[in-house]
Amino acid sequence: MYDGGKIILGIAVFLAFATFPFYSNMGRTVPKAEPKIDTPVIQQMEEKECVEPKEFMRAEHMKLLNEWRDSALRDARRVYVSSRGKRYDISLQNTCMKCHSNKSKFCDECHGYAAVKPYCWDCHFVKEEARDEH
Amino acid sequence: MSIDRREFLKIAGLTGIGIGLGATNLLLRGGLEASQFEPPPEGLTAERWAMVVDLRRFKTEEDYRRVIEACHRIHNVPDFGNPKDEVKWIWTDTFEHAFPGQKSEFIPEGLKRLPFLLLCNHCDNPPCVRVCPTKATFKRSDGIVMQDFHRCIGCRFCMSACPYGSRSFNWRDPRPFIKEIDPAYPTRTIGVVEKCTFCEERLAKGLEPACVEASRGGLIFGDLADPDSEVRRVLGSHYAIRRKAELGTGPSVFYIIGGEEYA
User: Fold this and answer.
1) Domain boundaries, chain A
2) How far is it, in rounded angstroms, from Cα B228 to Cα B208?
3) Residue B184 with chain A: CB contacts under 8 Å
4) Testing the interface with B: which of A61, A66, A79, A88 to mutate, by most B Cβ within 10 A?
5) Cross-chain residue pair A93–B200, CB shorter than 8 Å
6) Sign of the CA dihedral with A19 first, then A24, A30, and A33 last
7) Of A76, A81, A122, the CB nearest to B200
8) Is B253 contained in some domain?
9) To bridge B208 with a disulfide, which of A127, A133, B65, B212 should be the other Cys (CB 3.0-4.6 Å)?
């Protein structure tokens, strides 16, 4: 094999780089994401329910928020009729965050765990006490 | 194993159908029913919203300041403190600047100094909408020229298209320059164009625009298509001018200047 040493060295260096994310994270435990819903408004609710069932919200909230945004802003349809037939004002700041006033414990908990950085909060304002770095 | 032409075409056709069905399924999945959304029941509706600025009612600087403050406060409009970065939804300028086609050296002296209240004209034929590459700005069926801040990519075509200077660009992060953030309304971010939206979020709640409410009768708001509306009544009994109407934009903001009080 010509230049065998260089090739093997090259492969070794490549592998070291390519597998860096794996061994650098080896043994490191990331605390499980545990979003909290213990806000004053939710505590006072008799039946603790979101606009849609928990399972749906957990999996599809980002799609729902996109639909809400387009409906309210582009079609001026600012009322959402949920699958249970309840009506909600479409507003991230005034409807969602009224109950989920604990952004750092509710939103950021999972977003941080999943390493997603939604840019909602660049514009949508969250009061200082609930504010946290993304 | 060998396959003949007939066999190959059959398999290819079935594969094609399979891929098509799969793709359709992917596209349709996850969408929410359109009927789940309704317009707000208490909202104000119109065919074409319009505003009349009755300058006879604006007597002191305080009259202007109150109106501008009301708008800029509830919409979290930043104050950068220098004219280069200025962001404005409603502001004042001179007759000469607001109506360049109608200036002459013989207009009353008082009119030359009179501040004109300016805002987005919510044109019937808005040039900003035509040039927007992302449809971030669009015209609603009620005539409001809306700005979808989510979609704005900050190209500023709309700013060069607008003949009225109604649009402002956020050259810097606006948040630190907002005196007191109104928690009911979002702020904007750096790189986004903003302007007056005729308070569409207030109309949806059945309220008149904030400037109209603060103007104590100086601003009249209503439906241009309704012959019985307040704006039509005022326009039917007073001579009103519009900014640069000769450009064919069809502005929906009218100005009543009044007569001898500026002489």
Assistant:
1) 4-130
2) 17
3) 93-94
4) A79
5) no
6) negative
7) A76
8) yes
9) B212
In-domain check, residue B41? no
Alpha carbons B13 and B74: distance in angstroms, whole number? 60
pLDDT in tens, B128-168: 999 999 999 999 999 999 999 999 999 999 999 999 999 99
- Do B138 and A74 lie within an 8 Å CB cutoff? yes
Q: Are residues B140 and B10 in the same domain?
A: no
pTM for the structure as a whole:
0.82
For residue A21, the 8-state DSSP code is H
**Distance between CA atoms of B177 and B174, rounded to whole angstroms?**
5
**pLDDT (tens digit per residue) in A14-66:** 999 999 989 888 888 888 888 888 888 888 888 888 999 999 999 999 999 99
Helix (H) or strand (E) holding B129: helix B127-131
Domain count, chain B: 2
| CB-based contact, B183 to chain A, within 8 Å | yes
Residue B245: C-alpha distances to residues B50, B53, B121, B123, B124 (Å) = 14, 16, 10, 10, 11
Question: Domain range for residue B126?
Answer: 49-262
Side-chain-side CA neighbours of B224 within 13 Å: the count stands at 17
The 3-state secondary structure of B72-101 reads: HHHCCCCCCCCCCCCCCCEEEECHHHHCHH
Judging contacts by C-beta atoms under 8 Å, the chain A residues touching residue B189 are 119, 122-123
Q: What is the pLDDT of residues B21-69, one digit of tens each?
A: 988 887 776 555 555 899 999 999 999 999 999 999 999 999 999 999 9
Three-state secondary structure string covering B147-179: ECCCCCCCCCHHHHHCCCCCCEECCCCCHHHCC
